[in-house]
Amino acid sequence: MPEAPEVQTVLSTLETQIQNLKILKVDVFYEKILANPSIKELLVGQSFLQFHRIGKYLIFTTELYDFIVHLRMEGKFYLLNEIPKEKKHIHVIFSLSDGRFLCYHDTRKFGRMELYPKQEDKYNCPALKKVGWDVLDERYTPMYLYSKIHTSKRSLKAVLLDQSIQAGIGNIYADEICFASRLDPRTRAYRLSKKDCQILVKESKRILAGAMKYGGTTIRSYTSSLGVTGLFQLKLHVHTKEGCPCDVCSNPVIKTFVNNRGTYICTHCQKRK
DNA sequence: AAGTTCCCCTGTTAGC
DNA sequence: TGCTAACAGGGGAACT
Question: What Å value separates CA A96 and C1' B2?
């Protein structure tokens, strides 16, 4: 389940591997991955020139376009020397000018690919129109967060997962950010002070940046196999730790549901306001 | 308008 | 043992 750090790892690896390579051919085996079937033809002859990430969106800029890919739950890229025999979950294959193949693999078929005319400011791309600042963007500040949520009745967790407020946080990191901020994810957003927003923004940036650094170091040993996947190896304190003793206070971590999402909390460390 | 629920998918696991 | 049902989850559509 790639969140911003895993997406960044995929992007960085691809940047070193496929920059300036031209797309000779695109084969699509599951059309619904593409927002528009014409993408297949439009990309032929284009080259992967620049690589950007906003939240969980990958942005590959070519001569004419911004090619936007969202991996959703299980999307992965593999860079292979030949087309694999087992293509069950491979839905798109890009034939590249160096003879290799960039294969898009996605068991649940949730991923999406979109194509738009190239924009200077990627936030202007139609695919990202409703996406808020990336968590690591300097414009994502405590006051920005406070202004977005201080009248909202929604839970803190819902707000952290809302990509139109800030982009890049998924279910795992949302729980970890709440734990690090010592806030109960069920807290109503309007109850959060400016000081709470300061802590939340700081911890969000710290945790995502830390995970990216880790992913970036771990991926190197995998580049030889050219399997380009995001690695999630950050040390988790609460997420998936139901019943485990809290790393801080040793009380058991509980699992509950917030906004229909499995949510892990140390109710001793995390205060509900 | 804001907030919630449903749905898209399929592999894995829990339950009978 | 073998089957079905529930579950996981990002985000957009549909609904309240």
Answer: 46
